[in-house]
Write a structure and sequence with these properties.
2 copies of one chain form a homodimer. The first copy, chain A, is mostly helical. Chain A has 3 domains: 127 residues, Alpha Horseshoe (MgtE N-terminal fold); 100 residues, CBS-domain; 177 residues, SLC41 divalent cation transporters, integral membrane domain (Tetracycline Repressor, domain 2, Orthogonal Bundle), CATH 1.10.357.20. Helix content of chain A is 67%, strand content 6%. In chain A, strands 1-2-3 form a 3-stranded mixed β-sheet. In chain A, strands 4-5-6 form a 3-stranded mixed β-sheet. In chain A, strand 1, helix 12 and strand 2 form a beta-alpha-beta unit. In chain A, 43% of the residues are buried. Chains A and B meet through helix 12, helix 13, helix 15, helix 16 and helix 18 of A and helix 12, helix 13, helix 15, helix 16 and helix 18 of B.
Chain lengths: 444, 444
């Protein structure tokens, strides 16, 4: 089914066979439709969305990629958009409305039900990267003295088809007291009260917690849903596992792009000039390092005429030092991100990296000393290249292991460190060590 | 509470205050205890586990890191281990038993209940990286004509405290027909039959599917649990969202370590010599590239005496080409991993990278031409360096964007490409371009 629609969607629209298309779409999962719409142009997407039942169309819009979704929302007639937003969970609605110009956002919110609009407005106030930015206000809560029968009747009336994981139990001041899961509710006697069934949640999230910390706790405690509270313990909303999976993906992407000296913005930017600008800072850092290394090399060329024989090995020294340093940096950055390197326990990691790199440095150093010695039939050259490369590699490792920790201490994202900073610092330091030690040994 | 136990655990054990410790542990979450035990030595860990109720201790063992857990399982008295394994879900039990020597594994399986042992044995047969390796056999299934009352009574009897997300509905031949969620069950009338309630799952997983593909589908369809079937549609088990979160983490780690030329094994290896061996292949590739570049530089030094002035810019050319190439490679590798670069739609990506890098190359080229020209007061040098660096950068981008696609076509993990292969190929190619073009321009 999917392939038929995917391949022929444009034909269906051009041939005016909208009814046929609408029928096919109706039986498809919103996530599958979203996947087909993501790469389409705005006009076609809006046409297709108009063919679907409001509820289904609303789900499709939520499932679309952030960039496509925001574009479609901006282009769509405001009336239609309001219809779709009214069907959404508060968190999805807030994400979309927050991207609209202020006057349009106000119009949309004014047109949807008072209670819903209030929830959306409240969510729009929280920082996107915190628990408040992830949570939704839709959830089922109950008082401690509510009976099972009464609660079940309430759930029947809500009838919104939404997944229920836990019923959150609050006192009269809306302070979280516990939770009851669906299995307990199913097996309980009709007149049992919530306070007899409830247990305390293994995870309670505070509204201002960073989303990455929240994701780590979800993973640690294996929960599918957690209540969100404020400083006074009032129940504000809930976060579910699917929000967490999105966070994990987002953070993962961010780290990858940072390591390559770009950002996740790049994926959503279409113009090469814009992308080039995003990648440039990293390269300008490299460029600065390049001018420094060229000045160093020029100096040595001018000052010492007998060191020309060292020069061919410069790229090798810099390449190897760079590779070893970036391995240490990557391992350290990952260790910090995954919590494997605990706060205050950083020295064992640095020492471990030094031990590892000493082994690596001597293994490579011997091969290089023999290789360069034989290649140029000069034992002294081999010695000079070998010793200086061993030193350069060990120093590069230390830099690679220490710079991310330094970044962390300075509250800069350590992932930035495994990029140009370590590379350029490494280049300059290893070149000075290599040329300096090499020249000294050759002049002995 | 946690900090008290964490800080004083050794003291408690040394002072013989086991009862006090046991009491404190009893009120803690298994994941929190596991976090404290992970870095402890085997002897203390086994002592602490012995202080806990069997069910609690079993949960703690499951929550521990893979390496600590396998070590503890190997060291623990076999009788105790059997007790703990008997309490576990089939998938966790299979993971632990699979790591034991054959005779011990058989003893453990012989001692636990016949039905449980069968499930564990069956799971141990599946490839660890497939749906079969993730699923558990514990789940609740029902026939199409079972009534709500009857099913609820059965659930009451099972009483294992396990989370239930869906009841899977099968026909008489155990072929999956649909599912019923807990909310439906709670709101249904006592004599309704499953076939009147059931819907078809939005995600059904086949037992031999790769775990990464399964994780992507969980994310796409936002399900918290999915049934696993064989080729004939028979229901074999279920996968839950917490298994998926573990997969996402594992795959993410793998990609990071591959990009640094190491492997996730590194985290679990304690010896520096072993880790050095894991990192070495990547470096040997670099080393090979280094010998080639040194040969090229030696050749140019000997053949053309007037090119010494070009040499100081060699590190800059190689560094910038390498950085630009690795940006293209990273973006391409991520695009492939996230499904953003669809099969058969690779050219738009390559063309996009070329357009981006052309902008970058000319921007950097002009800065470098001016910089090197002024630095050495030689316009011709500036021209030579500028033109050849522009060419080298554009070629490096093409290599960076194409090599991962080539790897993908050859069924090699594209993540490997953004490492040493792209770097070393880049080094050699950009050096030849730079020295070749530079020499030609200077000799004109």
């Amino acid at each position: 089914m999917k392939t038929v629609v995917e391949r022929n969607l444009k034909n269906f629209l051009e041939d005016g066979r909208e009814n046929e298309l609408a029928e096919m779409l109706a039986s498809m999962h919103p996530a599958d439709i979203a996947e087909i719409l993501n790469p389409l142009d705005m006009e076609d997407t809006i046409k297709v969305i108009a063919l679907m039942e409001v509820e289904h169309a609303s789900d499709v819009l939520v499932e679309m990629s952030e960039s496509s979704r925001d574009q479609v929302a901006a282009e769509m007639p405001l009336e239609k958009l309001t219809e779709l937003v009214a069907e959404m969970d508060s968190d999805d609605a807030a994400d979309i409305v927050a991207e609209l110009p202020d006057d349009e956002a106000n119009k949309v919110l004014a047109a949807i039900e008072q209670k819903d609009a209030e929830g959306v407005r409240r969510l729009m106030m929280y920082d996107e990267e915190t628990a408040g930015g992830l949570m939704q206000v839709e959830m089922i809560s109950a008082k401690e003295d509510e009976t099972v029968t009464h609660l079940v009747e309430r759930i029947r009336e809500i009838d919104d088809g939404r997944d229920v994981y836990f019923i959150f139990i609050v006192d009269n001041a809306n302070v979280l007291r516990g939770q009851v899961n669906m299995r307990q509710l199913l097996l309980a006697w009709p007149d049992q009260m919530m306070k007899d069934l409830m247990t305390f949640p293994s995870l309670v999230v505070r509204v201002d917690e960073d989303q990455e910390a929240v994701a780590q706790k979800f993973q640690k405690y294996d929960v599918q849903s957690a209540p969100v509270i404020d400083d006074q313990g009032h129940l504000l909303g809930r976060i579910t596992f699917d929000d967490i999976m999105d966070v994990v993906h987002e953070e993962m992407d961010q780290d990858f792009y940072r390591m390559a000296g770009s950002s996740e913005e790049e994926v959503y930017s279409s113009g090469p000039a814009k992308i080039a600008t995003l990648r440039m800072p990293w390269l300008l850092f490299n460029l600065g390092g390049g001018f420094i290394t060229s000045a160093i090399l020029s100096y040595f060329e001018v000052a010492f005429t007998n060191i020309l024989i060292l020069v061919p090995f410069v790229p090798m020294v810099m390449g190897l030092s760079g590779a070893v340093g970036s391995q240490s940096a990557t391992i350290t950055v990952r260790g910090l991100a995954m919590g494997r390197i605990a706060e205050g326990k950083v020295w064992p990691n640095v020492l471990r990296e030094i031990r590892i790199s000493t082994i690596i440095a001597f293994s490579l150093g011997i091969i290089i000393a023999l290789g360069s010695g034989f290649l140029h039939s000069a034992a002294r050259l081999g010695l000079a290249v070998g010793i200086s490369i061993v030193t350069a590699i060990i120093v590069s490792t230390i830099l690679g292991a220490v710079i991310p920790l330094l970044f962390k201490a300075l509250k800069i994202d350590p992932a930035l460190a495994s990029g140009p900073v370590v590379t350029s610092t490494n280049d300059v330091v290893s070149l000075i060590i290599y040329m300096g030690m090499g020249t000294a040994i050759l002049s002995m």
